[in-house]
Amino acid sequence: MTTALVIGAGPAGLMAAQELAAAGLGVTVCDAKPSVGRKFLMAGKSGLNLTKDEPIAQMLPQYSEAAGPLRACLEAFDAQAVQDWARGLGQDVFTGSTGRVFPRAMKASPLLRAWLVALNAAGVVLRPNMRWQGWDEHGAVFDGPGGRETMAPRVTVLALGGASWARLGSDGAWRDTLVARGVPVADFAPANVGLQISWSDHMLRHSGRALKGVRFTAGPMSSRGEAVIGRTGLEGGGLYEVSRAVRLGHGVVVDLLPDLDAAEVANRLARPRGKASLSTHLRKALKLDVVKTALMQECARPLPQDPATLAGLLKALPLLHQGLRPLDQAISVAGGVPFDAMTPDFMLTSQPGVFCAGEMLDWEAPTGGYLINACLATGRWAGRAAAAYCADAA
Predict the structure, then answer these.
(1) Phi and psi of 178, rounded to 5°?
(2) What does the pLDDT look like over 12-64, one tens digit per residue?
(3) CATH class of 4-190+333-393
(4) End-to-end CA distance of the chain, in Å?
(5) Could you tell me what percent of the chain has a pLDDT over 70?
(6) What phi, psi does 223 have (nearest 5°)?
(7) What is the rounded CA–CA span in Å between residue 65 and residue 186?
(8) Within the chain, which residue ranges are assigned CATH 3.50.50.60?
(9) Running DSSP on this structure, what letter comes out for residue 304?
């Protein structure tokens, strides 16, 4: 028997388990995979970005329409709280030049190991290889190593992730289970995702190289950053921040020279170039590197000779693409359980005693610390609410 059941062992689920155990409840965490936190570990391979060190008033707009429903839990577990939590596990953190917060170890594994030690000390039971199959009249049903098994907890927190990176556990299979129970679920859509582009052979020669120091704009969204030329498209943090606008139908333009205005670019281009080729002139007059020059040729060949027209292209080069990359290749997803299907404490209105947390909720945010912060915050909020519900029902 377990008093509290958490299904899903990512950051949201583990944080919910931490809060339930702190309230004195017996907690079991079940996960379909053989080990926990797989997507969390993958996120930490290039430096785990835990949060963005900025006031909550700056953070909230990054969650778009979900800012209102998420406000209370993010205020209760803001950027400073995330840093204090990591330090409480013995993992020092630091803030980079862009305000992003990382563990000093620059990876997720030490933090996850310390967290699991603390959860074990608190009595939390972790059960891997337990795939949730929904509910029957006796409780939550799982297919596990020993066959089919049923648990009948007093409260349940669902933290099953979104529908990207299915091989790491977030496959969205829970959607049909909830819909069958009368819970509405908004369709999944890719977020923080690259563009599919059918490059010419000319551009494929630059595969693996970075497009640096540029600004991407799509509709009302703009982001300065970089992206990597891949064999089938373009990927990178600078692009991810405008992917929502692309999904909504806006075109993408890239400013190859964001530190110069169009007039200055035109003035430099108007300088005599003698017998130099246009590519050489671009390099000498504007310090335009070979990747940016190649992208110009790819998207706007033949390039105009008029300095003002060419300057306009350098400042707003339309990116020709075939849409966003597939859902399973996205870092995160939009869609999931809508907030109007839950109480303000994230309890399903049609399933009393069942709470939701993490990416399975219908919210999205750009990379840069906002994703993990909200997963931790919603897990903490749901865990505390589930503990309070359990106490009230006692």
Answers:
(1) -70, -40
(2) 999 999 999 999 999 999 999 999 999 999 887 777 999 999 999 999 999 99
(3) alpha beta
(4) 16
(5) 99
(6) -150, 130
(7) 14
(8) 4-190+333-393
(9) P
